[in-house]
Amino acid sequence: MVIAEDNALLREGLVLLLSSSGHEVAGVAATGPEILPLLLEHRPDVAVLDVRLPPGFRDEGLRAALAAREQLPGLPVLVLSQYVEETYAAELLGGGARGVGYLLKDRIGRVDEFLDALERVAAGGTALDPEVVAELLARRRDDPLDSLTPREREVLELMAQGHDNGTIARSMVVTERAVHKHIGNVFAKLGLPPSDSGGHRRVLAVLAYLNA
Questions:
Q1: Domain range holding 77?
Q2: Which of 43, 64, 101, 203 gives a 20 to 30 Å CA spacing to 2?
Q3: Could you tell me if residue 145 is inside a domain?
Q4: pLDDT digits (tens, 9 = 90+) for 77-102
């Protein structure tokens, strides 16, 4: 994998954490212009990129991620940010792309959660920080989301975070059958075609709807 982070302490901490977890860090970058050449050189299984990097500290990491995915279609990208920045999240997730993640940096401290999210993205799945999901849901008012029951909204949030039916059932302390029923109701109310594939297509469909 390739890491892009300007904070030297956090960057080295990520390298140590990932290396000790059995991952190979092929390259590191500290500025925006360094990212694309590194990604094209190493073609990593996944890229972990900070959103704001030198020289402008605006959206260098995100722009590099989007440019890299144009030249390396399907490149899994996990973006890290200090704050919930809806525009960045929506742009990265636009079009229902596979292999994308958006986490707040505080999530890195929860090592198991961070590694689980990283592996999910590397496998072509989706990993969204719960706070990012909440922001995306909150900004859409006066639409079909308003028709969801509290339980259905909870299921939708957990789906958007990338969890499977079993995990959702355990989190909500209900049966998988109940989760399946809630998911069916969510798709019906949002006007989305149901999917029994069990994969990430349903998550991506919901994300595409949220970012339409």
A1: 2-140
A2: 203
A3: no
A4: 999 988 777 666 666 776 556 788 88
